[in-house]
């Protein structure tokens, strides 16, 4: 009979709810756990208490994921134990109140000090997710960028402590391909730093949902991004209007664009994305309630459009939808609100057949 591995031990531990029973099981299986972790390459753990034995026994680990609070002590242990890390996923699943972020053992969630220790020891990191870590600021992320020069993915969503000064350093990166800044306090100045530095030649995906401090000047600077294929600007507040979206039309490389819930964009249409400039294959306009029939019909004959989301866009008619679907040869999916103008199609109508291709119609 083969000895229990790490996964099996963790499953058993997860089924034990009594604190004292957990402690007893942990003590009994400690040695087995250490042996099981020697060849461990990836770890997704929801029980930080186990880390003090798992990490020192896992020198070959390349991917570490934890969505719970971690103290600086655990970050230091991670740095000492796993120098070969390539992928660090620390995005937290709960909203931390910076005034109530005390860890169960009386310690706080890690801050810049804890992050600096890890990135200085693990300089070969390629992908890092710090989303929701409220105590991470400019100093920690700057250390990450300086130590890990091969970084390709960085998620700072919800990191409310970072400032525009950090974006000046981010803009100097030659390696980043995917940058997530959802909910960050980035301003037009920070966006200009990103768009005018070395990053303009390599960044492919930029996600800035809920960044409501940006406006025309910042958006216009994105025209300098030479490799940008995926842009997310959903829920970016009242400063993003038609003129800002029109400024994006010169980004010919864009394939995916998310403009959902831009409530002050008067009538977004494909005139902002015409075939002489960018030709995105995926367009998300969910929640753009001012979209009219004119705006929707302008998507007709779009050469590359495959996916179009119009959830919560009520001011369009089924006739307009049929016109767009029948003329966009590449379209495979369209999402619609059940409250669009009449006449509505018969209930349950969720497929259409045009140009020898089926289109999926999803109602919400």
UniProtKB/TrEMBL annotation:
Record Pfam families: DUF7885
GO biological processes: SCF-dependent proteasomal ubiquitin-dependent protein catabolic process
Domain F-box/LRR-repeat protein 15-like leucin rich repeat: 111-248
Domain of life: Eukaryota
GO CC annotations on file: SCF ubiquitin ligase complex
Protein's name in the database: Leucine-rich repeat, cysteine-containing subtype
Annotated source species: Artemisia annua
């Amino acid at each position: 009979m083969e000895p229990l591995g790490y996964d099996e031990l963790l499953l058993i531990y997860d089924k034990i709810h009594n604190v004292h029973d957990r402690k007893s099981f942990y003590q009994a299986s400690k040695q087995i756990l250490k042996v099981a972790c020697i060849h461990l390459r990836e770890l997704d753990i929801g029980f930080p208490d186990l880390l003090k034995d798992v990490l020192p026994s896992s020198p070959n680990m390349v991917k570490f994921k934890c969505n719970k609070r971690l103290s600086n002590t655990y970050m230091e242990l991670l740095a000492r134990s796993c120098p070969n890390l390539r992928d660090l996923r620390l995005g937290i699943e709960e909203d931390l109140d910076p005034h109530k972020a005390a860890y169960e053992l009386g310690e706080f969630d890690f801050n810049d000090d804890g992050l600096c220790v890890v990135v200085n020891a693990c300089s070969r990191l390629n992908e890092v997710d710090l989303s929701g870590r409220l105590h991470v600021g400019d100093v920690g992320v700057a250390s990450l960028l300086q130590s890990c020069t091969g970084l390709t993915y960085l998620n700072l969503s919800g990191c409310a402590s970072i400032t525009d000064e950090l974006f000046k350093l981010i803009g100097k990166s030659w390696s980043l391909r995917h940058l997530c800044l959802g909910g960050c306090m980035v301003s037009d100045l920070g966006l200009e730093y990103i768009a005018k530095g070395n990053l303009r030649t390599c960044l492919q995906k930029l996600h800035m949902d809920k960044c409501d401090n940006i406006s025309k000047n910042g958006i216009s600077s994105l025209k300098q991004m030479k490799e940008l294929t995926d842009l997310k600007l959903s829920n970016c507040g009242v400063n993003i209007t038609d003129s800002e979206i029109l400024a994006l039309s010169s980004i010919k490389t864009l394939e995916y664009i998310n403009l959902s819930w831009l409530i002050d964009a008067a009538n977004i249409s494909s005139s902002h994305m015409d075939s002489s400039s960018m030709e995105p294959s995926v367009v998300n306009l969910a929640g753009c309630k001012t979209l009219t029939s004119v705006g929707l019909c302008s998507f007709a004959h779009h050469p590359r459009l495959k996916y179009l989301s119009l959830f919560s866009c009520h001011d369009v008619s089924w006739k307009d939808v049929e016109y767009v679907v029948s003329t966009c040869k590449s379209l495979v999916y369209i999402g619609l609100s059940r409250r669009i103008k009449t006449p509505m199609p018969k209930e349950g109508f969720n497929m259409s057949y045009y140009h020898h291709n089926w289109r999926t119609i999803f109602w919400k």
